[in-house]
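Are you able to produce any protein sequence you like plus the matching backbone structure tokens because I've never seen that pairing?
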Amino acid sequence: MQASYNKFESIKYISIGKKEGELQQENFLKKFSIFIFVRINCFCNKF
């Protein structure tokens, strides 16, 4: 019983970790694309 419970717990934590990682990746991509967009806007406004 204890062994299977521990296995379930570890699987749960792994899936939570994956979701957290995906969210962080998504946030990073959003910030990165906003950064690029702002840089391009500044570059275009100079001309």
Notes: The mean pLDDT is 81. The chain has one domain: 1-47.
